[in-house]
Queue: 2 jobs
Job 1
Amino acid sequence: MRIDIITALPQLLESPFADSILQRAIKRNLVTVQLHDLKKYGIGKHQQIDDYQFGGGAGMVMMVEPILNCIQDLKKERTYDEIIYMTPDGELFNQKMANQLSLKKNLIILCGHYKGIDQRLRDHIITKEISIGSYVLSGGELAAAVVSDAIIRLLPGVLNDEASALSDSFQDDLLAPPVYTRPKEINGWKVPEILTTGNFPKIEAWREEQALEITRKRRPDLLDKDFSD
Ligand code: 6GU
């Protein structure tokens, strides 16, 4: 898979891909992540990428030309499955969307800023609009990192334990059960007895029961949702 991220603040996106699981996935060539500095496509000697909005009103709007030129350059090299725009008024991101996007070959992710991008880009160029939650971030960069992480960790070979992506919270519409490690007791806080018995069928039953109970309590909405493809 290849992900091209277009941003006016490429520095903001460097560290999420420079460590841990994402770094390893990139080093192993399981994914290519390329950051593109939108300012390089800016107009005039000031490399302008935004302008006042028609009709008046506070906030600058990201112009068509720099973004269009950047995307057209990328499209010359390969065909893209989706051109994603990160925006708080997009479709709410979830595990189902991550699963679907993880099956694609080439993605562009465009990070919005200011008042957002000129609507004509949304009408004619963007194929998918994603929000990561009901709150407003300063820009789309952190959201793009969130979406990229959720996608990349699903790619074959990225996680050491292949089973562990499948046992994630949300993958089976349930939150994860509690986990414990050594010591068996600290400060008088004990590990649930069942986990130390070695009775694996019973342990599995306990975990399922816990997952169900936690989901019922915290996220009852998940129990009647369909996250499958
Ligand atoms: Cl994708 N962008 C911004 N700026 N804010 C957000 C968001 C995206 N998703 C939730 N809040």
Note: The longest helix spans residues 200-218.
Job 2
Amino acid sequence: MSKAPTARLDRLLANMAYGSRREIQQMMDAGWIVLDGAKLRNASMRVAVTPDLVDRMTVRGKPLDPPAPLTLMLHKPLGHVCSHKEDGPRIYDLLPARWRSREPAISSIGRLDKETSGLLLLTDDGGLLHRVISPKHHVAKRYLATLDRPLKGDEAAIFASGTLLLEAEDKPVLPAKLEVLDDHRAYLTLTEGRYHQVRRMFAAVGNHVNALHRDRIGALDLPTDLEPGQYRVIDLEGLAPIFAGERV
Ligand code: URA
């Protein structure tokens, strides 16, 4: 079994944005930091950073935030932006304020457009982020598209061909799977994440996406009880389905 990493307590808590290292020492002097029922006094002590720390440590009487590495699933609501550069409410505003100042920072794994809803993963683990977004790892993302015009019937073959070119690009999109639900609705499963890819793929076959929702990443489904705007922490076991999805 691999040993849990250890961290200096003041650094651990400062990285989780509880305060500066000096402030952490003051919080300890005040008896506000408790581990296994005992008030901690020594800011330079090392603690094993294990997932159960959230159940064993309290800060000002509240359970410790989950330490890094932290991964979340969020039900992104319509109208929120994933990028720090765009205008509008940000997905990060949906997280506890302290989580927005953590080191390493939490960022979304890929992005959804402002007007797209659904399953979005966020993490402070750079390796995980890379594995999910890199087309090399073939993590499939499934979108439910509601279309302006009826489907013609040839779209599935065009999307699967691996030859479809998007406007202003010279590299065709990778083969993608279309599952038609009815005249105006279909699931589209992709393994890449180009800018506005689903909308642009439908535009390339003469249609227009009126509504877009992502409901699956790998074999991880957006839980039906996770309402728009809500998030949930995913543990190691919960991450496994991300890499267990079908190949397109
Ligand atoms: N494709 C899009 O067009 N928009 C998204 O948000 C995701 C994929």
Note: Residues 21-29 form the longest helix (9 residues).
